[in-house]
Amino acid sequence: MAKARHYKRLEKNAISSLANLAQRVFALFGRGILRFFRACDSKLTIMVVPHSRGKVVNFQTNVFALVFGIVLVIGIVASFIYFKRQDSGIREELANATKENRELLASFDELRDENNNVLQSAKRFKSSLSQTLSLLGISQSKTIANNTNSDSDLNSLFETQETASGLTKEVADMKQLSSFLEDSIQPIEQIGKMLENQESLFTDIPNIWPIKGGIGHISQHFGQNRHPISGVWYIHKGLDISTFRSGDPIMATANGQVVTVAYDSGFGNYVIIKHKHGMYTRYCHMSTVKVKKGQFVSQRDIIGTIGNTGLSTGPHLHYEIHIGSDVVDPAQYVNVKLTNTK
């Protein structure tokens, strides 16, 4: 019990000491505040004395108002400097944005020109595709065939109105052009399939240049000519093709079977190949022959080389095409540009 009373006295003494300390602290703080406000409330007199003999101007104020005014002026000046710098940054950003906007407008104009070029190319493509499909007898889709008499335009692709959704004319044109090209895929694929189916026909008809690499020139054409040896006018029944040298490879101009490998005093070493559709080709004045009678050859196979055998004034190939018993001009079948050497 004695210890309990002792602890209670100590507790009361501690609480009392803390209360006294807090009271002294608050009293000291209060006196400090009071002194501060008294100091701020101190009266000041500011005198403005001009150098001339003018009237002296007196201003009466207190410390608080003076300090507040100084802080206010400093704040206004700092704000002015800050916003001035901000304004300079905004002006610079605005100038950069204006420059970028001009560049974007220039790029847009260039894009618009390219868009117009694409549309003009599409118009020509549509016209050519429609004509090709008509020649080949392939039915045209509605997108391609519709309104073909309206200056060959791509239907509504070249209308000048903007779409209801707000898209620009250029974007709308590109969307319709994409749709048009998508619809063009099917007829083009049909053309490819048709050409693929006709590939065998092309290889069965003698329609290529008989000298490998497309070299050589026509030294004498088909038809009426003066004989290079006798000087007598006669009907030349083929094409004379010269490369100015012997040994250049001669190709079969179509698939077929070798029916003749022989020598003649006029034709020299020559080969005759039989093709489908009643067609024959003859290759004369050959230096060497690389095929045998009865052998089947494919278009572009090497059958021999250019020579100067038989009745000839120099190394060349005499090339003939026969259809049945008729001799025809080979120039109508070879698919190269012939140069008139006369």
Give a structural overview.
The chain contains five helices and 14 strands. It has helices at residues 2-40, 63-136, 142-145, 169-197, 199-204, and strands spanning 43-48, 57-62, 217-220, 223-226, 233-236, 239-242, 249-251, 256-264, 268-274, 279-289, 296-297, 302-306, 317-323, 326-328. Strands 3, 6, 7, 8, 9, 10, 11, 12, 13 and 14 form a ten-stranded antiparallel beta sheet that branches. Strand 13 and strand 14 form a beta hairpin. The radius of gyration is 53 Å and the shape is elongated.
Summarize the structure.
By secondary structure, the chain is α+β, with helices and mostly antiparallel strands. It contains 5 helices and 14 strands.
- Report the strand count: 14
Straight-line distance between termini = 149 Å
- The computed structural class is alpha+beta
Mean pLDDT: 80
Q: Strand fraction band?
A: 15-25%
> How would you spell out the order of helices and strands?
HEEHHHHEEEEEEEEEEEE
Shape by Cα distribution: elongated
CA radius of gyration is: 53 Å
User: How does the major sheet shape up?
Assistant: 10 strands, antiparallel
**What is the helix tally?**
5
Low-confidence stretches: 147-153, 158-166, 337-342
Fraction in helix? 40-55%
